[in-house]
Specification:
The protein has seven helices and two strands; from the N terminus they run αααααααββ. A two-stranded antiparallel sheet has the order 1-2. By secondary structure, the chain is mostly helical. The two termini are 67 Å apart.
Length: 149
């Protein structure tokens, strides 16, 4: 098998075979593991300085880890129940409202009413609709003033 240019693989990883991708993934995971292992002494020092030796005594030596595992299991059950409730609610709404557009547009406002409300002429509305770019200033009373430009 011919070697693949690494630059091309970065830009198009689908050129790699499944075996090459699996190898690269394992190598990456292994290197990250080694990197994290190198941080263990510094993490241990920081934990010791922050007084986590007491936490170790409580959690490991006196059996508090069993309580922690129990609490973590209960959190897992709670998260699973929340996921289940939201999923059932989503699927029921999807089944109930699928294909039914319940949103309706409001009634169209006649051009005369728009022109009267904004204090512009009817031909100005046609000019606004036809223009690609519109510049509008506002008078002190809040009414729009079209710029000729």
């Amino acid at each position: 098998m011919a070697a693949v240019d690494p630059k091309i693989c970065i830009d198009a990883p689908d050129l790699l075979t499944a075996k090459q991708r699996a190898r690269d993934t394992l190598m990456t995971a292994g290197m990250w593991g080694a990197y994290l292992y190198l941080w263990v002494p510094l993490i241990s020092l920081a934990a010791w300085l922050l007084g986590f030796q007491f936490a170790y005594d409580v959690m490991v030596r006196t059996g508090g880890a069993r309580d922690l595992v129990h609490v973590l299991k209960m959190f897992g059950v709670a998260i699973a129940l929340i996921f289940l409730v939201v999923s059932v609610w989503s699927y029921s709404n999807r089944a109930r409202y699928r294909g039914h557009n319940r949103r309706h547009a409001g009634p169209a406002v006649p051009d005369e009413s728009l022109a009267e409300h904004f204090g512009v002429e009817g031909c100005a509305l046609d000019r606004l609709r036809a223009a690609r770019r519109v510049e509008i200033d506002f008078a002190s009373d809040g009414r729009p003033e079209l710029r000729d430009g």
